């Protein structure tokens, strides 16, 4: 595996692991509170839809000329990466609540227990089905987007797909073993790393797509990613100085809840 | 039907653009500038890193001020 191949694998694996942890939390809540049959049907349906999306978009993306693909994907990854990085910096500096899988699991569990059971077609519990279907589909779309764009750009969709599958299998096995949300996975740190990688790849491919030439060609990525990480860490340190105090933190959390 | 289309559009807007649409606008503008500069003799690779250095703190500053 080359240097950029390794970076591609790491970026896709980490991004997909983060999304898989989030999907697992929702499926666990649906399965635990309502029953595994309908939750499982929701997961299978979402995986079928995702497979269809990948089957259509994958070949379509590889048919686009490389320059245009890099411009399009670079723009999308840079926008996407900056949003991830923005949230990660706000969380790391205390301006936004940390992503807490235990809290999300408890909230989903309580909502699932209160909902009425309803049978539709072959699904015995429509609530459990839609909850796990939406969870897997929404998080899975991000996985598919990252795997297809990274793989398409590097002309190595199989490697990106393997990285995505490895992440999903690892998280699923860990979740089955624990039978609980994977709250010990350092999700906020992973999101920070993924934000740095998406932003770095976005800058690199976006500039190449717009006909700029990086000094050192592909090796430039080895400088862009650490510098982006250092810059983001510097912003965290700067923002920590003005982080909300412990007294105002609950009010900020309440505002966050209202907005979300 | 219209409500569903609106929800579909809102999902993709939230998925791609996210919390701060200004970031997306700045990225597209920076790519256009990169393309423009690359047509001249001046190197153009620095435009996107410079845009990130300006846009990320600006977006964070706006998010912090909102709170």
TrEMBL record, chain A:
Recite the UniProt keywords alphabetically: Membrane, Transmembrane, Transmembrane helix
Membrane is among the record's keywords: yes
Q: Where are the transmembrane segments?
A: 6-30, 42-61, 67-85, 126-151, 157-178, 190-207, 219-239
Please report the name of this protein according to its UniProt entry: GDT1 family protein
From TrEMBL, chain B:
Name of the protein in question: Uncharacterized protein
Query: Where are its TM segments located?
Result: 21-38, 44-61
What does the UniProt keyword field contain?
Answer: Membrane, Transmembrane, Transmembrane helix
Organism source for this protein? Actinocrinis puniceicyclus
